[in-house]
Amino acid sequence: MPDIAQGPQIPDAGYALEEIADGIFWIGDGSYQTMFVVSDEGVIAVDAPPTLGHNILRAISTVTRKPITEVVYSHHHSDHCGAMSIYPEGVPRYAHRATAQRLELLGDPHRPRATHVFDHTATIEAGDHTLEMRYPGPNHSEGNSFIHAPGQRVLMLVDVIFPGWVPFSNLALSAFVPGFVSVTEQALSYDFEHLVGGHVTRPGTRHDVHVQVEYLADLKATTESALSAVDLAATMSSIDTGNNWAVFRAYLDAVAAQATDELVPRWKDRLGGADVFTLPNAWAMAETLRLDLNSLGPFGTVP
Ligand SMILES: [Zn+2]
Description:
By secondary structure, the chain is α/β, with parallel strands linked by helices. It is 36% helix and 18% strand.
């Protein structure tokens, strides 16, 4: 694995804890990560990945005796928020409206409903700390929001920036890939030194965002070329062309494979997992080029 993909050793307790800025604690288990803020008024807890679960409360108790006073959902996905029920019942729970709607529809007792719902922005003022949430429009999921501590220069953006690693499969299974690419770039408009990405091994930096912007630009350009460069005759030679889905699958798989053959040598020493998830990332990029960006390749000729 490239050095850039490495993070702190995980102690036997099952989690690593690091004060990345004044009163802001990063907690990670080697795969998932989140943060909590200790202000002079109390603790603001963001997300609760089930893999960390009660270790979050144990970690909080090692640094403060103050109560948890607010809880924030980055988005609704259970791998990041499926243990939100560990937090006290009565505290305000912040979420974007799209997140709040999904929480209501799903009715999961481990992801209790939001009590403070925002459409664009929300701010938590807690003594010496301020936390600002902003929704940039659909991206990884609908509702997934920026969470910024301007005073401490910490930015949290979950399932979008993967410090030291390529994005998870199919561009992090994004609901809207153009939004996913856009918020990656928008992260750079924030003033921050430390980034909490929700994955993988370590906290991130501005440099990690620049590298991911570069990876996504390379992925897009390379996949876009492959959309029209794929040898259709060779690809279809062993396909039953009466089977419409077989034709599409062969074409899309060939596009992703061709892009991957070019991309992996360029990225395998720069980002962790480039050899694993570049193929499904190219597949997802091909589909967003075709369906969102109207770059349809050989199937897009208007008669
Ligand atoms: Zn997610």
